[in-house]
Write a structure and sequence with these properties.
This protein is an alpha/beta fold. The chain contains 8 helices and 7 strands; from the N terminus they run βαβαβαβαβαβαααβ. The protein has one domain: NAD(P)-binding Rossmann-like Domain (Rossmann fold, 3-Layer(aba) Sandwich), CATH 3.40.50.720. It is 48% helix and 15% strand. It has a 7-stranded parallel sheet with strand order 3-2-1-4-5-6-7, with helices on both faces. Bound molecules: nicotinamide-adenine-dinucleotide. Pfam families: adh_short.
Length: 260
């Protein structure tokens, strides 16, 4: 499916899954805005796309800051003429048992995932509705949108919440041709996951190899990590699927870790 003539904004696109999503959407022909806290890394991804012959721009955006989100979305429309695809991907992980979870850290995790998804959706929808050419909103869920793991209360609660937001946006946006879907990856070896391996080894008093084999990949069908390319290809498919037949759904990309 070609995305020629489409404009995409990807949050958290300076690293990991978001970065690969930006590269893949650009390869399919979309102009891509790389929105991230990390300006220099965002600009580096944009430069890589431009050097390969694509259109891209880096913008600094904290997805929990309404003014910054609105400014980044407005800048996207000003630069490229529209916003057709939003990938609400920015995210972090903080792990603690519930009884010790610092409230400030709970709020930080929930806010980046849920407030960030809400604020970017709100800003993008206004332009999508005004332009009257529909759109595709893709949320970064997780196997943790459907399953639970110890120590991840804030993340699991937020990722479950994203399903609810996506379903409401699917219902409200449907009559205007705006689709909303959630991509739910299993473990992908990005900086977010690399950080968790020693943390979980310490928390459960096991080796790092055991964390990978017995926790992260235990429930997969083949003991394999999901890759950033796997996830980006599903994002590109959802971005290019032009009818409301596929909306309000979650697509789990996890080597069978979760089969919801
Ligand atoms: P990553 O750490 O490689 O990248 C996350 C990016 O988000 C970073 O560039 C960071 O600067 C940016 N970011 C963080 N807070 C931000 C904010 N407030 N505003 C804007 N940008 C911000 O992580 P990743 O593994 O690529 O994760 C991306 C998304 O995928 C997250 O939503 C994560 O929950 C989800 N996910 C990851 C995995 C996995 O195994 N890696 C699995 C399922 C879901």
């Amino acid at each position: 499916m070609s995305l020629k003539g489409k404009v995409a904004l990807v949050t958290g696109a300076a690293s990991g899954i978001g970065r690969q999503a930006a590269l893949t959407l650009a390869q399919k022909g979309a102009a891509v805005v790389i929105a991230d806290l990390n300006q220099s890394a965002a600009d580096a991804v944009a430069t890589q796309i431009i050097e390969a012959g694509g259109k891209a721009m880096g913008v600094v955006m904290d997805v929990t800051d309404e003014a910054a989100v609105n400014a980044g979305v407005d800048q996207t429309v000003k630069q490229f003429g529209s916003i057709d695809i939003l990938v609400a991907n920015a995210g972090i992980q903080i792990v603690h048992p519930v009884e010790d979870f610092p409230y400030a850290e709970w709020k930080k995790v929930v806010s980046i995932h849920l407030d960030g998804s809400f604020l970017t959706t709100k800003a993008a929808l206004k332009h999508m509705y005004a332009a009257g050419r529909g759109g595709s909103i893709i949320y970064m869920g997780s196997v943790h949108s459907h399953e639970a793991s110890r120590l991840k209360s804030a993340y699991v609660a937020a990722k479950h919440g994203i399903l609810g937001l996506a379903r409401v946006v699917a219902k409200e946006g449907g009559p205007k041709g705006v689709r909303a879907n959630v991509v739910c990856p299993g473990f992908v070896r990005t900086p977010l996951v690399e950080k968790q391996i020693p943390e979980q080894a310490a928390a459960f008093n096991i080796s790092e190899a055991e964390v990978i084999k017995n926790i992260m990949l235990k429930d997969t069908v083949d003991g394999e990590f999901t890759t950033t390319e796997d996830v980006a290809n599903v994002i590109a498919f959802l971005a290019g699927f032009e009818s409301n037949a596929l909306t309000g759904q979650s697509v789990v990309v996890s080597h069978g870790w979760s089969m919801h």
